[in-house]
Write a structure and sequence with these properties.
The protein has 219 residues and is of the alpha/beta class. The chain is 40% helix and 18% strand. Strand 1 and strand 2 form a beta hairpin.
Length: 219
C-alpha cells in the first residue's frame, strides 16, 4: 500500500525515531532493507484481495483464540508485533491502541501476533484493553502462513549485536527469523481489505488509513 503525503501523528513519531538512529546502524538498516527488497519477499506476502489464512494461537492466559472466532464479531485488524526490542513496533502499537475506540465504533477489533512470547511491553499494554487480543506465535507459524518470515540479513544482525540486541535471546532460537512489519484489515468474510507489508520496518500502516477503509462503502 502506498502512503499518502499527509503527516499524521504516527508518521511524525516514526520520522522522529528514524532521525534519532545512530548513523552506522541506520546505514546497516538501509542496506538490509535494500537486500530484502531485491529478494522480492514482500511479493510473497498475503495482499489485499487474498483470503486471510485462519489460525489459532494462545493468548497470555493460555486460552486458544482463532481468527475465525474473532471475525464472527466483525472485521479484524491483524498486526504483527516483532518484539519490544523494536522501537518502531512500539510506536505502531501505541498508535493502534490509541485508535481502538474509533476502530471499535466502526465494528472492528485488534489482534496483535508476536513471536516474542515474553514481551512484557505488549502484555502490560494489552491487559484490560477492550477490543484488543494479543496472541503468541513463538515458532512464527502464522507469520509463515502470511508469507512474512525472513532471516535477518547478516549486516543488520551484526549491527543489532553491537547495540546489545541479541534476537537469539529474545526469541529463544538461533535462527534470527522474524516477520516483516505487516498489518491487515480483514473483512468478516475472511478476505483482506487492506494490507501493509513492507521490509522497511520504519514504515507502518496508519490507523487513519484503516479507519478510512472501514468506513468506505462496500459492494
Amino acid at each position: 500500500m502506498q502512503e499518502t503525503g499527509t503527516v499524521t501523528p504516527l508518521r511524525a513519531r516514526l520520522g522522529t525515531r528514524l532521525g534519532q538512529l545512530d548513523g552506522a546502524y541506520r546505514a546497516s538498516m538501509e542496506a538490509a532493507i535494500a537486500h530484502l527488497r531485491r529478494s522480492g519477499m514482500a511479493t510473497r506476502a498475503k495482499l489485499a484481495g487474498d483470503r486471510a489464512p485462519d489460525f489459532a494461537l494462545p493468548d497470555p492466559d493460555g486460552a486458544i483464540v482463532s481468527l475465525a472466532e474473532r471475525l464472527q464479531a466483525g472485521p479484524v485488524v491483524l498486526s504483527f508485533f516483532r518484539g519490544e526490542w523494536c522501537s518502531f513496533c512500539r510506536i505502531e502499537m501505541d498508535a493502534l491502541i490509541a485508535a481502538l475506540p474509533d476502530l471499535a465504533a466502526a465494528g472492528a477489533s485488534l489482534v496483535m501476533v508476536s513471536p516474542q512470547g515474553s514481551s512484557e511491553t505488549l502484555l502490560a499494554r494489552s491487559r484490560g484493553v477492550p477490543g484488543l487480543t494479543v496472541l503468541k506465535d513463538p515458532m512464527n507459524g502464522v507469520g509463515l502462513q502470511y508469507g512474512l518470515i525472513f532471516r535477518m540479513p547478516d549486516i543488520l544482525r551484526e549491527a543489532l549485536l553491537a547495540l546489545g540486541v541479541d534476537l537469539s535471546h529474545v526469541y529463544g532460537t538461533d535462527a534470527w527469523l522474524l516477520p516483516i512489519p505487516a498489518t491487515y484489515l480483514i473483512r468478516r468474510d475472511g478476505t483482506i481489505a487492506l494490507a501493509h507489508t513492507d521490509p522497511d520496518f520504519t514504515r507502518r500502516l496508519d490507523p487513519q488509513d484503516i479507519l478510512a477503509a472501514l468506513r468506505a462503502p462496500t459492494g
